[in-house]
Each structure stands twice: as structure tokens, then as C-alpha cells.
Here is the input.
Amino acid sequence: MRYLTDRDGAREIDRHTIRDFGLSSLILMERAALACAGVLAENIRPGGRIFVLAGTGNNGADGLACARILLQRGYEVSVLAAGEETHTTEEWRFQRDLAGKLGISVAFAGHAVQIPCGYDAYVDALFGIGLSRPVSGIRLEALESFMHASEGAFVLAVDIPSGIDASRGTVYGKAVRADVTVTFGPEKAGLLLYPGAMYCGRVIAAEIGFHIPDPAEYACSRICERADIAALLPGRPADGNKGSFGSVLVIAGAAGMAGAACFAAEAALRMGAGLVRVLTAPENAPVLQIRLPEAVLVTRRPEESLHETIAREMRRASCVVIGPGLSMSGEAAKALDAVCSADSRIPVVVDADGLNLLAGKLSMLQAPERFILTPHPGELARLLTTTVGALKEEGLISASGRLYEQSGAVCVCKDARTVIRTGRKQVFLNPTGNDGMASGGSGDVLSGVIGGLLAAGCAPADAAVAGVWIHGAAGDAAALKEGRHFMSARSIIAGLSAVLSGFENRKILEE
Here is the structure.
């Protein structure tokens, strides 16, 4: 598992290491500069020309130290500083003086700055993690000139590309596009969250000596890796039967929306659920019987109300998936109310129209810890009574915290980087998936994947984290096979085989 930090956490790590642990900031700076210089040496021939744009803070000081090391290694180096000389830090002035002893001249940018083209590499050491507002003035002119001059050359960003918010991945108007970003200590969330992730290139997390006795203390989120997911998956006993692997009740698909019900149900089956029962509009029955004969269609008895049918089915189910293609009709609202008010402790995944029906009514979730909410940005905005634009400004990590506080449920906030919040301080950023998954039905598949894991015995938090990872990995497998443009929801379902067989094969090898 990898821990991610944000702007405040990174600053606290730096402060703790220097003030409490007693490691000099200059030692940290030298190690940071050596890491950057090492990456440049791997990519630029000896004797190459390298341009460094430095800010006036300690990120700029890292750049000055890197320039000195590169000069000592035989590179031709030019340095330009952007900002006010009166605002430089003590470390910055120390690094400038050291560089000056080797003949490196550090000039300050003026208006109409023109950074020359033609260098082999350009080093962005302008802002670092401290940026929290749009760039303006001389710094903006220098940034724009740097971006123009560096087109086609190798670009290295020191800690984070200038123009990117380290906590949210927000782009403040314009930002440097790096080929490689060398970040120090834990990765910053802004390097993985979009749109910032598109500007970072390859991210290298360099260990420079930070003292971090408990990474979780400074983390804003975590990233699960394959081994972590494998540990969450329940085993499949060799003597098991369909009753051993649970039953998923899928309540989905208004008239004409059979596809949503099919995707959720088939994904649950492909995840290994022993049985999947589907309650859907009668008009969808022929499609389901042809497309997914393995599923059992739930029929409502003449003497039963919808509440009674759902209560009966929940007594025989291991979990419920409700919402895909359900519509916003009165019948759909009754179905959601029946699930939420049922005297049951089984876990429930609420997706799509189920979430829209919940907007303004989160208090109807009884025993909320058994619920998993899976909103995309539009649904999340409705649940939090805000706008998608405001959510993007706030950031998904913060927004997921608000949804958790208001609902008490496990929150799967879907986006290009999905955020899963399983508690007040338990936040996961999912690393798998790709833009080929941005098509109708993908979310329905995810709800079924999570449902299949719940049926097999996963706790809601584990099912959410593992389900999102597996769903994204299945999309990645599909992209490799078909290409991102050609993918559909069915491609993701097909990709589940490659992902799950990988876990099974690894288990056999370990045994």
C-alpha cells in the first residue's frame, strides 16, 4: 500500500524532519537535487545543455542545487529566477552563493521575459507544492515562456509541475507538462488526481531522508496495489456449492432499460456469485432470459405489494444492488424505500437512479454502514446539493468526506480517479482504469462487481475498495485487447476474467 499526502501533510513532514528529528534542510535539499540530477543524467547525454527555471522559495533552491550538481558533472547549465529577490529564502540564497562559486549566474526575470529555445532539457523548479492560487505577473510570464521554449525538449518537474495544486490536482490556468516529475517523500495526491495527473509524465518518488514514523499520520489517502487487493478477496472452498458463494438481488431496469439490469447481474455472476436474482420491469424479461439465462427472474405474486416482494427476496439474498436503469418513477421510489426500510442487515449497493432518489433523503438509510453509495460527479452533486463545477473546485477527497459525514455509508465517488471513503480518515484513491471505460453501462458493471464481492462475504468497505480496483483493472485488460476507443461495458465484463484468473493463478503458485 502506498500513502499519498497533500500540501499540508507534505509541509508537516518537512517541518517534523527538520525541527523535531533534527535533519538539516540543506541535507534534504542536497538529496533532492541529487535525485533530480540523476534522472537528467539518465536522459541527457554528457555535455548537454540544461535550462533551470527557479522560483524564490525552497523549490527554486532545489533547482539551484540541481544546476550546481549538473555543472560539476559536465553539463552546460543556465538558470533564471522568477520572483522578487527580496522574498528569497535563506536556503535559496545559500544555494545561489554556492552556484556562484562555480560561475553559475542567476538572473531575475523581468517583464517580456524570453527563455531561449534549443536546450536539451528544461527543469521546472518554479513553485513546488506551495501553489494555491492562479499564477500572475512576472511568474506567469516566465511560466508561459518556459512552456513555449521547452516544447519538444525533455522536461523535468521538481516535486510537482508548476501550476498544479498538490492536494486536488487542479490546474491554475496554465501548467508545465513534464516528461518526468521527481517528487520527494510520499507522492502528492495532486500528481494522481485529474487533470493534474495529465501534466506529470512519469512520477518518481525519491527517498531523500524524511523521518516518517507513521505514514498514515500524514496521509490524505492511500493507494491499494495488487497484493493488497489479493488479501481482501475471499477464498473459494473446493467443496463449495452455489449456496457457499452467496446470492445477489439486483433491483434494476425500468421498462426499456434491460441493459442496465443485464450488466449489473452479469458482472455479479462473473465475480463468482452463486446465484443472481433480478427484479426488473416485466417488459425486460425476454431480453434477460436471452442475454443472461443464468440469472433468475423475480416475479411479483398477485397478492403481494412491492414492499412485500422485496422483503421476501431480501430474506434469501446475501446482498442487494439497486438503482441501475431504475428511473425516477413512483414505483422506483417505493422499491428504494422497501430496501432501506427492510428489517435486514445485508449490505446494499445503491447506484444510478437509486442515488438520484436518495438526494435530499440520506436519512432514510437505516444502519448506514451496510450501504455502499456509488455516485458519479453529477449524482454526487445532487446528493450534496451543489454543482459539478463546485465539486471540481473542492476536490473529490474533500467531497467524499462530506458525503460520508451526511450518510454514514461507504462512499465510492467515481471519476477518472475514483475516491473510496470507508471512514472519516480511511480514504483510498484507485489507480486502475482508463478513459475507454467512459461509456454507458460501465457504472452498472461496477455495482455488480461490488455486489459479487459482497455475496462472497466481503465486508462493505473491502468490497468497495477491491471492487473498484478490479473493475478498473478489467477495463485496463480490455483496453490492451481491444483499444480504448472500441470498448464498451461488455468489454469490461470480459476483462474480469483476465483479472480474476491472475489472482487465482498467483494463489496456486503460492500454494
